[in-house]
Recover the amino acids of this structure.
């Protein structure tokens, strides 16, 4: 980790965050959309869902590496302890989901002996044996965790906006850019 | 806590309202996309639900064509198909096949005597790791033009209202050829002597990149054994499976895969419309059925014969049915694999 304490994420981290934000949100919408339609767009959505999931897996691993290298800006010193705990925990759960969801999806397809097609003629190897019980467990997990993932993203969004609009403590700007609001620190007493 | 701001530019309540609107808006968009706000949307689950009345689902089994028997064999490509598609499966050679004979029923215990519309599903794998899955049936054309029409047909045929089917037929005149077929086509006493038709149009892409709209069929080498329906009724409930086992024990069975190429303007998007007989057809190879396995322990059991599992060189056309079949088959697969306990694997199969 870098010894220097920054009040912003590095530009690389910010790019990764926002690219992944778009990918993951799109992924979740595509996921619930593709299983609820019989129209030809079902196939289009499925064909995006698989390569996009693998892209998110790769990006998440890159992102963790970048985080290990550059660290994160500190949370505001005055952030109440429950919020601090929620922030730390929810971020690690988000990272875990970014990695677990594509692997579960890949495993689920493998356990059903579906070819995991990324592009026309390019497919991934099977990572699990054919198994109805594995397929069922992974499919249930994939669906349930997708909803957990989306709920956490809503919470993340709400918290980010709370930092931006209510607390105005610079946490939002650390990722979004722009100038953090002038913070008036009370003189030490 | 130190004061954060000298003077907030807006009341906290307004900020909280903004946050609630943004988060609520995203959540609402998600709910809409998932169909939770649109109960009238035709979903794969609704299609699968329509096959069986509540409580009558064939637990552990496919929701349609629920009774079947597995086979293994080979597809021997003669190389002629390479003119239409660059898919490896059309290059001269032999490729393993894992398939399933079946008939249209939602009851896995249905007597074979009731088998009016038989089916053949195949998965062909090639050394490049690609796979081609296809489900074909005995009907000459599909009963309806649209996926919504198919759902309406399921609802009408499952309805207790005696007027439901006549009303459906009046609204869907395209069903007439299938109605005629059901009345007049000879009943056959074997899976082996049946022509199986893919019905849906797909696009073959050749090595120059040109697309060809096609439909394919499997033409039996076995001579037909038409029998009066009354004679069939006296047969064993599993006579189709026994017949297949006896035939295969005596020697392999063969079908020729015939590909029909559409002319410009032929109705590729409507599987209820036949293409004229004079269209170019190319025999691309021979399917050989070598071994038969009972489904409960057989290799076809856990395969979803999703017709959109296609190798490079074959893709879906503007025919809307393969997408609908893919989405509904996945639901059927998810349900039956979760119910595997209701369909034990330990049955003593009638493997020859």
């Amino acid at each position: 980790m870098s010894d220097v304490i920054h009040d912003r994420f590095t530009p690389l981290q910010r790019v990764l965050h926002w690219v992944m934000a778009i990918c993951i949100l799109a992924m979740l919408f595509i996921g619930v959309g593709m299983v609820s339609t019989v129209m030809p767009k079902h196939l289009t959505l499925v064909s995006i869902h698989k390569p996009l999931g693998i892209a998110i897996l790769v990006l998440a691993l890159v992102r963790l590496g970048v985080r290990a290298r550059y660290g994160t800006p500190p949370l505001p010193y005055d952030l109440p302890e429950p919020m601090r705990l929620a922030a730390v925990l929810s971020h690690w759960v988000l990272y875990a989901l970014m990695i677990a969801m594509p692997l579960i999806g890949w495993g689920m397809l493998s356990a059903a002996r579906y070819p995991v097609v990324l592009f026309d003629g390019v497919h991934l190897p099977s990572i699990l044996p054919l198994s109805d019980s594995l397929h069922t467990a992974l499919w249930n997990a994939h669906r349930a965790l997708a909803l957990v993932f989306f709920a956490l993203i809503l919470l993340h969004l709400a918290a980010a906006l709370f930092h931006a609009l209510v607390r105005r403590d610079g946490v939002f700007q650390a990722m979004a850019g722009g100038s953090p609001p002038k913070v008036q620190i009370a003189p030490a007493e | 806590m130190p004061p954060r701001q000298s003077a907030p530019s807006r009341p906290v309540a307004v900020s909280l309202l903004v946050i609630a609107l943004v988060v609520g808006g995203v959540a609402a968009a998600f709910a809409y996309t998932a169909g939770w706000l649109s109960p009238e949307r035709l979903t794969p689950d609704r299609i699968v639900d329509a096959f069986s009345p509540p409580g009558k689902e064939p637990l552990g089994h496919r929701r349609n064509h629920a009774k079947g028997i597995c086979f293994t064999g080979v597809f021997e490509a003669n190389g002629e198909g390479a003119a239409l598609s660059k898919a490896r499966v059309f290059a001269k050679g032999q490729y393993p096949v894992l398939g399933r004979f079946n008939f249209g029923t939602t009851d896995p215990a249905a007597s074979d005597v009731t088998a009016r519309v038989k089916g053949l599903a195949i998965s062909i794998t090639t050394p490049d790791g690609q796979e081609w899955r296809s489900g074909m049936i005995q009907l000459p054309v599909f009963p309806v033009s649209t996926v919504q029409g198919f759902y309406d047909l399921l609802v009408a045929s499952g309805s207790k209202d005696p007027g439901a089917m006549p009303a459906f037929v009046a609204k869907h005149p395209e069903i007439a050829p299938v109605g005629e077929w059901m009345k007049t086509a000879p009943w056959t006493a074997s899976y082996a002597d049946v022509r199986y038709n893919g019905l849906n149009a797909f696009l073959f892409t050749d090595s120059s990149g040109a697309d060809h709209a096609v439909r394919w069929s499997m033409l039996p080498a076995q001579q037909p054994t038409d029998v009066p329906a009354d004679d069939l009724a006296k047969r064993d409930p599993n006579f189709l499976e026994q017949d297949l086992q006896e035939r295969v024990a005596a020697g392999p069975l063969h079908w020729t895969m015939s590909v029909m190429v559409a002319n410009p303007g032929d109705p590729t998007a409507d599987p209820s419309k036949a293409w004229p007989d004079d269209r170019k057809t190319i025999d691309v190879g021979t399917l050989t059925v070598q071994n038969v396995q009972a489904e409960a322990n057989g290799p076809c059991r856990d395969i979803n014969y999703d017709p959109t599992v296609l190798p490079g060189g074959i893709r879906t056309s503007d025919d809307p049915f393969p997408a609908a079949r893919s989405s509904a088959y996945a639901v059927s697969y998810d349900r039956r694999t979760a119910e595997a306990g209701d369909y034990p694997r330990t049955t003593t199969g009638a493997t020859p």
Notes: The helical segments of chain B are 12-33, 44-51, 147-157, 164-171, 176-184, 229-232, 239-250, 321-338.
